[in-house]
Amino acid sequence: MNPFDKYQFESFSLKGDLTVLSATHEPEEFPHREEQIARMADAMSSLLLGMKSSHLILYGKTGTGKTSVTKFVTSKLSEKIGGNLTVCYINCQNYDSPYSILVFIARTLLGPDIVPQSGWTLDRIYEELVSGLKNLKKEIIIILDEVDKLVEKNGGDSLYLLLKVTDENPGVSGSIIGITNDTAFYEKLDPRVKSRLNKESIVFPPYNSEQLRDILLPRVRRVLGDENYDETAVNLCAAIGAQEHGDARKAIDLMRVAIELALRDSAKRVTREYVYKARDNLEIDIMRETIKTLPVHSKLVLLSVILCGEARPNSATTGEVSSIYNHLCERVGIAPLTQRRISDFLTDLEDYGLISTTLKSLGRYGRTRLIRITGRENDMKRYILDDPDFSNIGDVKQSRQFKLDERI
Ligand SMILES: Nc1ncnc2c1ncn2[C@@H]1O[C@H](COP(=O)(O)OP(=O)(O)OP(=O)(O)O)[C@@H](O)[C@H]1O
Ligand SMILES: [Mg+2]
Fold first, then answer.
1. What is the pTM of this model?
2. Which ligand is nearest to the CA of 64?
3. pLDDT tens, residue by residue, 335-365
4. Integer CA distances (angstroms), 341 to 225, 322, 330, in order
């Protein structure tokens, strides 16, 4: 028997490629970003006359189109200017120091072998880059995506050298486009960077659900044609994306997964139900990945919160969680950490959205934190216990055997 026989896919067929709904798709149309595109084009138009353009800082929450619009606008500018312009895209999450950024630019614009493997000093790379760019005789646009990561890691001074390259060398003409989620980014810069950064700021506001619908619909039509889906399914993706701080990525991901699930089910059309299922799938994926990457002690603290909740459905206190945690450490065979560290882990787990805590006053005995799980305990427990280090705590899988009251 062929195990794929059951996947008949006779319901509806795709009219176009599903990659139109993937992260790699680069659209040519950006509904509701006309103003931002026009302002960017305006700011960069001086390059068409062979003059330097001002630097740009783009602000906006995740999924508001900053990266894709920037790539679109700069590629259109390249079409116009041709060989006299080079665009260098750098994600500061990967290149997170002034040195690695200068090396990256040198290798991209001047050739991969320009910097020896053994490296150069920062001064040397600066000198070589400047002289290389003078010979290159091109306009340069340097896109620093997630530029806040660079400043967070290296301080408010980290753009200094780069601005010196682009602004203080006759014969070199470059401009920087910094992209960030952090509205306070500019304030974190050093005065000497601020005074050099002659910039224009452009805000990418969150999308509302109607706007997300306009973004989604053309893509959905390309994949599914005019039928095969309920409009309410698209509306629901848009509404969920709007709730998630106006995130187009979220809305697009939801629609793609909903279509995949509907296809797998041999459904007649993509309905709201598939969008709800897609949301559950995506949330579980995120939760699984988050839990998988937690440090061992953090996993044990989370497991303790889950076990507390099972034994006593109302919120657990920090003391109760610590007590179970100590017991789990004993079973796993590792030394428990102090109460303070446990508190730190609880704060991290709350930041990840895995638990929620509230402070409760105990009158003259001070205050305690009440802790509860925010997601599906059973899935969380399964993902934690997948860790091979925890093979010898297998019997807590039967949580009821694990009597909270005996431990505290
Ligand atoms: N107005 C729009 N029209 C069409 N597609 C859009 C629009 N805005 C965003 N998108 C799409 O949404 C997805 C997310 O956009 P993008 O990666 O540009 O967001 P971002 O603002 O850079 O987010 P982050 O801050 O998380 O990096 C991409 O697939 C992009 O093509
Ligand atoms: Mg981005």
1. 0.78
2. 1
3. 999 989 999 999 989 988 899 988 888 788 7
4. 55, 10, 17
Q: Which CATH number belongs to the domain containing residue 339 in this structure? A: 1.10.10.10
Contact by Cβ (8 Å): 371, 305: yes
> In this structure, is residue 258 part of a structural domain?
yes
Q: Please state, in angstroms and rounded to a whole number, the distance separating the CA atoms of residues 160 and 177.
A: 14
Question: The domain spanning residue 238 has which CATH number?
Answer: 1.10.8.60
Ligand nearest to the CA of 62: 1
Ligand 1 pocket by C-beta < 6 Å: which residues?
23, 27, 30-33, 60, 62-68, 181, 215, 248-249, 252
The whole-number pLDDT of residue 40 equals 96
Query: Which range marks the domain in which residue 283 is found?
Result: 208-290
Site to probe by mutation for ligand 1, drawn from 58, 68, 210 as the one with most ligand atoms within 8 Å of Cβ, is 68
Question: Amino acid letter at 207?
Answer: Y
End-to-end Cα distance, the chain: 56
Buried b (16+ CB within 10 A) or exposed e, 9-40: eeebeeeeebebbeeeeeeeebbbbeebbebb
Triad 232, 278, 229: Cα angle to 5°: 35
